[in-house]
Amino acid sequence: MARLTDVPDSARSQELKGPERAWQSDHLHKDYERFPPRRSRFTTLSGAPIKDLYTPTDIANIDYLADLGFPGQYPYTRGVHASMYRGRPWTIRQVAGFGQAEDTNRRYKYLLAHGETGLSTDFDLPTLLGYDSDHPVYSREVGKIGVAIDTVVDTHALFADIPLDEISTSLTINGSAAVLLAMYRVTGDERGISGDRLTGTIQNDILKEYTAQNEFIFPPGPSVRLVVDTMEYAANCMPRFNPVSISGYHIREAGATAVEELALTLSAGITYLEAAKERGIDPDVLAPRVSFFFDVHRDFFEEIAKLRAARRLWALLMRERLGCRDPRSWLMRAHAQTAGVSLTAQQPLNNIVRTTTEALSGVLGGVQSLHTNSFDEAYAIPSEHAIKIAVRTQQILLHETGVGDVVDPLAGSYYIERLTKDILEQAKALIEQIDAMGGLVAAIESGYVNQLIADSAWEQQMQVEANERVIVGVNDFVDEVSPSEMELFELDPRTAEQQIRRLKETKASRDQRSAGQALRAIESAAREQRKNLMPHIEEAVRERCTVGEVCGVLREVWGEQRPSTRF
Amino acid sequence: MPIKVVIAKPGLDGHDRGAKVIARSLRDAGMEVVYTGIFQSPQSIVRTVIQEDAQVLGISSLAGGHLEYAADILALLRKEGASDVLVVLGGTIPERDAAKLMTMGITAVFGPGTPTSRVVEYIRDHAPRLRPTA
C-alpha cells in the first residue's frame, strides 16, 4: 500500500498527535490570545468547518494508488489526461448568444479572432422553451438573453463560415435540445460535413431544469426518454459529439452547496445511463460521450477539491455501479464556468478579479474547458470590451502564470486531499439518500430537491446579511457615491420583427405536405414508448419545421410540467 | 392583519433564487406570501393579486423583460380597479430602466445585492392599508 505521504502507516500519524497538541497549546492558542480569529467560525462557502491547520494526520487513511492514482488512470482524481495542460491546454469557450443568428455569428468571429478556441451558444427564452419567435406573448423575449432560433435556416446563419469539422461547439439548451441537436446535424449535413466529423456538446440535461434552471417543457418521465433518445442517436450518427453535458452549474447558482451540486449532478448522470440500460443500451456505448459542466465558485480550495472529488466519484460509479468496462466510460471530462452569482453589480471591475481566482480554481481542478464571466454580466449580455477581458484572463492564466505547466499541482496538500475526500464521501452519502427515495426523478417530484436547494440558498443569503461573509463592495468597502453607469450592451430593437419576418418566409416557402407529414410522424412515435424520436425530429428539421412546431406536437402528447410554487 | 404579498415571475425567465429568498424573508417578517412560480402571464399574475386580495405585488425579473411585463401588469391592475396595489420590482435592472419603471408606476426597484431587510422594511412602510371589505 502506497500512502500519500512517506508515512509508512497510521502509527506515524499517531506520533504526530502529541506534537500537534503541543503546538496548539504552545503556539496557536497564544497567537489567538494576541490576534483573535477573524471569524467566529471558519467554514467553506458551503458551510463545512475548516480547521486551523492540516497535517499528515488528516490524510492518514488516503491511499495514493487507490484514491489518487496517476493522471489519465483510474480513478482520475489527478486528471483525465496523463499530460493535462502541458499537452493540450483547456479550451477557452465563452458562451455567446443574442439577437438574430447573424448577430451571434459576428460575436463568434470576434471571439475566435481574439483567441477563443471553442464556441458556445446561449439561446433566447422562446427557443429554450420550445416556442417560435412569433408567439403572441413571448415574442417580446426574442433574442434577449440568447440567440433566436426557429428553423434550420437560422442555424445555417448562426454557423456561417465556421468550420464545424474543426471547431467544437457547445449548445446550452435542454427542454428543446432534441430539436437543436437535429438542427446541428442537418446544418453540417447540408454543408457537406457528415455527422461523424461534428464535435461539440449539447447540454441536454433536463433533470436539473426542474430543480435549478427552470427551462423545462414536458414532465420528467418523457423528458428523460428524450434524453436517452438523443444519446442513442448521437452514438449512432454523431459519434464524436457529446449529447449530454450533465450540469451542476445551475444547481449551484440556484443556491446549492458544493456537495449538493456534485451529488445531484452525478445522480442525474446515473439516472440517464440507467434509463438507457433499461432500454437495453449498454452503458459502455453511451458513457464515453457523457460530459459534465460545473460551477467554479468563490471558495478557491473547495472548488478545486470538488472537481477532483467529482472525477473520482464518477469513475467509481461508472465502474462499480453501472458495470462499465471501457476506461473511456470512467473518465469525467468537464467544462467549468466562473460563478455568475458571485458577480456584483456594485463596483463591477472587481468582478474581473473574482473571475480570475475562480478560473484559477477551475484550472487547478483540472477542467477541459472554461468560460470566464465578463465583468458587466450582473446587468446584461457582455459588451465586446468586457468579453475580451474575460478571454484575456484565461490567456494570462495559461501563458503567464505557469499554473498549467505541471499536472495537478496541488495533489498531496494535506488540506486539498482532506477536502477532496470529505466532499466525495458527503456527495456519495447524498446520492445514496436520493436512491433511498426512489432515485432522482422521485426526489424531484416529491419536492425534496427544490427544498434542499432553496434552504441552502437561504442560509447563504442570511450569512451575507449577518455580515458573516464579506462581499467587497456589497456589505463592506461600499462606495458612498454610485459610479456613472457602464456602457451596457443594447439589443437592436428590430430583432423580433426581423426574426418573425424570416420565420414567416421560411414557413411559406417550404413543402407544406412533407412538413406536416414529418410532424405527424413525430406525434405517432412519441406515443410509442420504445421508438427513438430523433430520426423523425431530424426529418422534420430538414423539412424546415420550427422549434415551436416540434415541441408543440410533443406538448400535445406529453403535456407540460407545472412550475413549483414552493419557496 | 398581516400584509399580503404576491411574489411573481412573469414570462419565461427561470431565475427564481431571488424571488424565493425574498418570499421567505417576507414570510419570516410576518407577512402572508403567495409565490406564483415561474412562467406566469401578466393576466395570471393580476388574477392572483385580485383573488388573494393582496396589498403588495413583487415582480422578479432577471432576463430583460422587465419593461414590457411591468407595463402590461400595471395596465391590467388599473383596468381591474386595483391600482392601489403597491407594485415593486427586483432583479437585474440597468439604472436607466429603473428610472423608467419608476415613472410607469413601480414604486421601488431592488437591484442585485439588496439586503432582504431593506425590502421587508420598504414593504412594511409603504403597503397600503387594507381596503374595507364590502
What secondary-structure arrangement, pairings included, does this model have?
The complex is a heterodimer of chains A (567) and B (134).
Chain A: H1 10-34, H2 64-68, H3 84-87, E1 91-96, H4 101-113, E2 118-122, H5 125-128, H6 152-158, E3 169-172, H7 177-190, E4 200-202, H8 207-213, H9 220-237, E5 241-242, E6 244-247, H10 249-253, H11 258-278, H12 283-286, E7 290-296, H13 300-321, H14 327-330, E8 333-338, H15 350-364, E9 369-371, H16 384-400, H17 414-436, H18 440-445, H19 448-465, H20 495-509, H21 512-527, H22 534-542, H23 547-558
Parallel strand pairs in A: 1-2, 1-9, 2-3, 3-4, 4-5, 6-7, 7-8, 8-9
Chain B: E1 4-8, H1 17-28, E2 32-35, H2 42-52, E3 56-61, H3 66-79, E4 86-91, H4 95-104, E5 108-110, H5 116-126
Parallel strand pairs in B: 1-2, 1-3, 3-4, 4-5
Low-confidence stretches of chain B: none
> Can you summarize the main beta sheet of chain A?
9 strands, parallel
- Main structural class of chain A: alpha/beta
Biggest sheet of chain B, in brief? Answer: 5 strands, parallel
Question: How would you explain this protein's 3D organization?
Answer:
The complex is a heterodimer of chains A (567) and B (134). With 567 residues, chain A is an alpha/beta fold. Chain A has two domains: 56 residues, no CATH class; 397 residues, Methylmalonyl-CoA mutase (TIM Barrel), CATH 3.20.20. Chain A contains 23 helices and nine strands. Chain A is globular and about 85 Å long. The model of chain A has no long low-confidence stretch (mean pLDDT 95). A five-stranded parallel β-sheet of chain B has the order 2-1-3-4-5, with helices on both faces. The longest helix of chain B is centred in the middle third of the chain and has 14 residues. The mean pLDDT of chain B is 94. Chain B has a single domain, classed as Rossmann fold. In chain B, helix 2 packs across helix 3. Chain B contains five helices and five strands. Chain B is an alpha/beta fold and 134 residues long. At the A-B interface, helix 5 and helix 19 of A face helix 1 and strand 2 of B.
